[in-house]
Structure formats: structure tokens, C-alpha cells
Amino acid sequence: MRILVVEDERKVAELVSRGLKAARYAVDVAVDGESGWAMANTYPYDLIILDLGLPGISGLELLRRIRRRDARVPVLVLTAKDATTSKVENFEAGADDYLTKPFAFAELQVRVKSLLRRGPVSQGGEVRVADLEIDRLTQQVRRGGRRIELTPKEYGLLEYLATQPGRVFSRTMIVEHVWDESFEGLTNIVDVYVRHLREKVDAPHPVKLIHTVRGVGYSLSEDSAA
Amino acid sequence: MRLRSIRFRLTAWYAGLLTIVILALGALLFLHLRSYLEDTLLDTQARRARQISGTLVANAASTGEAYVARQVAALYDPERSDRFIRITGGDGRIVYLSGVPNSQAFDPAAVPAAPASINGEFRRRQKVAGAPAVLITAVRAEAGGTPYLVEVGTSAAPVEALFRHLLLLLGLGLPVVALLAASGGYLLIRWALQPVDQIAGKAEQITQHNLSERLPVPSTGDELESLSVALNRMITRLDDAFLNSKRFVADASHELRTPLTILRGELESMIQEGAFPAPDRERIGGLLEEVERLTMIVERLFALSRLDAGEAQSEWVRFDLAELASTTAGQMTLLAEDRRIAVTCDTGTPVMVDGDRSRLKQVVVNLLDNAIKYTPEGGAVRLRVLAAQGLAVLEVIDTGVGIPPEDLPRVFNRFFRVNQTRSQHPEGAGLGLAIVESICSANHGEIEVESVPNKGSCFRVKLPLAA
User: Fold this and answer.
1) How far is C-alpha A59 from the geometric centre of its chain's CA atoms?
2) CA of A14, closest CA in chain B: separation in Å?
3) Measured between CB atoms, does A64 come within 8 Å of chain B?
4) Which strands form A140-143's sheet, in the order they lie side by side?
5) Burial of B381 (0-12, 13-18, 19+ CB in 10 A)
6) CB 3.0 to 4.6 Å from B375: which of B266, B312, B400, B460, for a disulfide?
7) Is pTM beyond 0.90 here?
8) Residue B324: CA count within 13 A, CB half-sphere
């Protein structure tokens, strides 16, 4: 999978490409609109990550040109504008998804993954993490064979954490995904739900599956170091 | 009418000055007229006295005093002409004394004798007991070595009556004139100040939201024109200052994003690469929490600058405020339960409003979040939505710590925090309520707050109902 990162801030570009390379993607970096356009024309990229505030050809202009040439390549927009207002114009210009700076790297990875798959993470089937079983069809949760009763939101949270065991999810990501909207005040709720979830899922067992990564977020994993 | 108002003071000065002028004029007229009239009367008496002394008394030695007395009575008929005539001989002997005049103005017998030490002609205003004064001219005469004193007088009653009348006229007329002058002056001043009122009214309508507007300038070339021009210049300066500060907030919050992205990204990768032992990861986590807090402040400032720029109308929809409130309250109930705070939601019938739904949801979230945060464990938070007097009203009432009265006017200011909460909740930035207020006014609504320290607060949002 080859990804083009068009970002004029070298440090941000480096950060993104380093993280993506660590996730085994091939990454090219362009630091302005012209070279970005040239590279997008030269190589068949699987995904383009595009910063909107570019010198030279603006990010929006570049996005329009890319769309005129190739309607299918997914484009993830990085923007310094706030989410609610630029949403409409970004999608109108042809972006497939967008991230507002400053973003959590975990979030970038999730979006990249889902854009490359061209569709949401699979909805069916059963997920297993250690002795925890989540049945996505019946929305039933068992641990060590014993049924655990969860409220719909608790279930949503657990299922989301279980989509990529070991990955750390930020509070913002959790709120946006589980509650389907993002409000500052609501991110506090995540902590409360996680605590409730821990009481039901982890408290009776010696091996803890839900982990807090201070300053980053939460993860679900058998491995306590993750 | 206030005593210190320019209208009242000008009117008072105007009426006061006019009264003083009238009084001075009256006094001058009064004194001058009085002495003129009395002098004229005394002149007439003097002429008569000289006639009597020159023609009759001078010959008394040859004609006899009785003849003189008869002649005076016959020629001058003092009783009918209301006149006082007295001829006194050298040793105080009365040669002639006129009778009581027909008008009964005075009793001649009661008129005291003239002072002894007078020479030539002597005029006096003789007071008579129980009657108006008598104006008397006395003239010395001599016949055959006998000195005589001829006194001719007339009652001052007509002059006094005239002045009494004049005084009455002045006394009654002055208040009327002063009142007329005062009300005329008042109306004139009001008329003159009316344009100032209009300018003030228009200036009042210019707030921070329509600073681009200007006052109309009357091209009258007077103080009013320069007042309007001066006010407009001031509004321009204010407008510039506001624009600068808004641009600053927008630019600052924008420019801070990239460094924050780098900070956050690098710190996150340090944690996740697992190259550091656990205690260091904890410290990096602490740094990340601060980055998150900075990010939150930047986000809020950015939201405020967007609202300042009037970008709330972009997602204008019609929706049920009651439904929004109860959904949001439902989402946040767990947060409250966690602190053993009961959240109740009184929403009956749908309350439809037009506005930016997601931003108004932020209002409910921020208000509820504050209410839960600042209410001690075991307290209660009540959310009410109702329609009243053409307005949609949303109230968030808590039993929390409240806000000190001196801080109430400033709770919606940017970066304002009540001192007490600064220490107890260091994670806030004092922007939540500023955002709430900006969103309310962007949605043509307003927010007000009532609070009693240690009893609780009530935040009330009023929005126009959907037509």
C-alpha cells in the first residue's frame, strides 16, 4: 500500500510518515502543492493524506485537481479549521474523510485503515480477546463462559475497543464512534463508562483486559504492556 | 425630572434670571415712580403755600388774621379739595386750620406741628396716626414783625393706593410670568436637546455585533454634527479594536495547531514505541494530558472566533429543543450518577426553535457539565424546557456551590473563572460559558444567570420560538 502525504510542515510530515512506515505502509512526502500534484500524477497511490493549508497550490485546489483526474483514490484531509464548519466544504471538494489538527495518531491510523479497506470495519462475527468473547450478531458478551450484562453504550464501547485489540483509542475517537457525535463535555463520560465496564468485565478476574494509557486513551488487550 | 438634569438646571436658571430681572425692574420703577409722584404733589402744595404766604399772610398786619383765615377758606376750599392747610403764628398760635376733608382721608387736628427749626421752604411726609401719611410743604412768612408758618398738604392715600395696586399686580403677575417663562424655556430646551436624544438612541443600538454601523450625521454645522462625527470616530476605533482582537484569537488558535500536532504526535509515539520504562511513560502521559488541555483551549478559542465571525448560520435547522435537552441529559446522566447527583428533566410538549442544532447542543452540554461539576455529591440538577411569552426557555438549575454576587456579571467573560473554582477544578479554562453566550447570541437568543452562593445557580437560555 502506497500513501502520499502532502504536508508543508516538515515535522508533521515526518511524524505521519514515520508512524505509517512503522505500520508497514510505503510513504512518500510532498512539502508543497506543486510537488504534491506532480507526485500524485506520477505514481498510483492507494491513499493521499492532504493538508489543506499549503503554500503555492492550495490544498482545496489540489484536491479538486486530483478528483478531476481520478475519482477513486481516497483522500484524507488534514485541516486546522474546526470540525463542524469545514465538514461540508471538505466533503463537497471531494475529501473522503478529514482530521482536525491536532489529532491523535491512533485516530489517523484508524482512518487510514478504514479508507484503504474502503468501508467500515466488518460488523459480523465473533471477537475474542483472551477469555472474553463478543458476539457481534447477538451483541452478547461472555467472559470465562459467563454471560456479562451490558447496557447498549457499554456494549458499544467494548465492541469499539475490540475492533483492534492492543490499539489505543482516544476519548475523542470513542465519543465520536460510540456516541456518534463529538462534544468536549461528553469526553468526560467516556471515563465513567470505562469504569463501569471495568467493574463488569475486569473486576471479577485476575487478568485485566481494559488498559488506560495515560494522556492517550484506552485499549483492550491481553497484554498489560500495550 | 431629575434635579441635576441639564433640562431642569437650564430651566431653573432661565426662570430665576427672569424673576430677578422683573423684580429689579419693578423695584426701580416702584421707587422712581413713587418719588416722582410725591415730588409732583409736594410741588403743587409748595405753589399753594407760596401763594398763601405771598398774597394773604404777607398782608396780615393790615388785613387782620381773621380776614386771612376767611380768604383761605373761601379761595382754597380745603375740605372739598381734600387739602390740609394750617397757618401758625409765631408763638405756635393757630391762625387757621382746615377742617376734615370730605374724603375723610385724615384729621387735620391730628397732624403734628412742624419742627420749629425750619427756614424757607420745608417739605415732609408727615405720618398721621390711624390714617395714610400727609404730604406737607411748609413755608415761612412774616407780616408786621410776626412770623408765620404756612403749611399746605394733601393725603398720600391715592399714591399709596396706586402702589398697593402695582404691588398686587407684580405679586400676582410675577409667578405667572415666571411659570410661563419656565415652561417655555423647558420646551425650548427639550426641543434643542431632542437631536441629542436621537443620537443617544441610535448609539445605544450599536453593540459589539453591529459595530460596522455608523450614526447618521446631520449636516447642520453645529455641535450636534461634531458630536455625531466624534461618536462615529469612536465607534470606528472600537470596531478596529474588536476586529484586531478577533483576528488575533483566530490567528493564534490557528497557528497553535501545528506545534500541538507535533507535540502530541511525538509524545504519543514515545509512549507507544515502548522504549521507555513505566515511570517515564507516566510522565510523558502527564505531558500529553497538558497537550490535551492546550488543545481544548485552542479548540474553544477557535470556536469563539468562528462565532464572532458569524459563522453559526451555516447549519440552520428547525428542531425540538425539549428533545435535544432530554437526549443530552440522558447522555450525561451517568456522569451525574457517578457523583450521586440526581438529574431530572422537565420537558413536556415539544418546543420548536430555528438554529444551529449542534452548537445549541454544545450549550446544553456545557451548562449540564458545569452544573454537575459544581454541585456537591448528593445534590440535584434540574433541566427545564418550556415555551413562554413567545420564547423558548431552557433552564439548568443546580444545588451547587453558586457564584458570588460580585462575580455574576463576569461569568460569561472569556477566561474568567471564579477564584474558588480555579483551585478546585484546575482543568477548566474559563471559556465554556463564554462559548455558551456566543452561541446563544449567534442564535438570536440570550442567556441569564441567577445564583445564591452555597444554594445553587440557575442558567436560563431564551431563544425565539420557531414561527
Assistant:
1) 21
2) 9
3) no
4) A126-129, A132-135, A140-143, A146-148
5) buried
6) B400
7) no
8) 25
> Which stretches does DSSP call E strand in B254-406?
316-320, 342-347, 352-356, 380-388, 391-398
Å from A105 to nearest chain B CA?
6
Pairwise CA distance, residues B385 & A203, whole Å: 40
The end-to-end CA distance of chain A, in Å, is 26
Secondary structure (3-state) at B356? strand
Between B13 and B105, name the one with better pLDDT: B13
Complex ipTM, two decimals?
Answer: 0.78
Nearest to B274 among A186, A215, A225 (CB): A225
The answer to whether A152 contacts chain B (CB < 8 Å) is: no
**Residue A182 cell numbers, joined:** 463529538
Cell numbers describing residue B134: 400727609
Given an 8 Å threshold on Cβ–Cβ distance, is A185 in contact with B281?
no
Q: CA B339 to CA B345: how far, in whole Å?
A: 17
- B332, closest residue in chain A (CA to CA): A189
Q: Quote the strand ranges of chain A, DSSP E.
A: 2-6, 26-30, 47-51, 75-79, 97-100, 126-129, 132-135, 140-143, 146-148, 210-213, 217-220
Nearest to A81 by CA among A57, A103, A106: A103
Any residues with CB less than 8 A from the CB of A94 and at least 6 apart, and which? Answer: A63, A64, A66, A67, A75
User: A with B: how many residue pairs have Cβ under 8 Å apart?
Assistant: 113
Instruction: Please state, in angstroms and rounded to a whole number, the distance separating the CA atoms of residues A79 and B254.
Output: 10
- How far, rounded to the nearest angstrom, does the alpha carbon of residue B187 sit from its chain's CA centroid? 16
Query: Count of CB atoms within 10 A of residue B278's CB?
Result: 7
Helical (H) or strand (E) element with B97: strand B94-97
User: In this structure, are residues A84 and B359 in contact, taking their beta carbons and an 8 Å threshold?
Assistant: yes
Establish if A223 touches chain B: CB-CB under 8 angstroms: no
Distance CA B287, CA B272 (A): 14
Q: Across residues B107-129, what is the average pLDDT?
A: 80
A149 touches chain B (CB under 8 A): no
CA angle A100, A86, B296 (to 5 degrees): 40
Beta carbons of B361 and A192 less than 8 Å apart: no
Order across the sheet with A26-30: list the strands. Answer: A26-30, A2-6, A47-51, A75-79, A97-100
List pLDDT tens digits, range B192-242: 888 888 888 888 888 777 888 888 888 888 888 898 899 999 999 988 988
Report which of A164, A161, A166, A188 is spatially closest to residue A177, judged by C-alpha positions: A161
d(CA B158, CA A141): 125
What is the distance in angstroms between the CA of the first residue and the CA of the last residue of chain B?
A: 41
Nearest to A105 among B268, B303, B366 (CB): B268
Averaged pLDDT for residues B264-286: 85
Contact A12 B258 (CB under 8 A): yes
CA distance A34 to chain B (A): 21
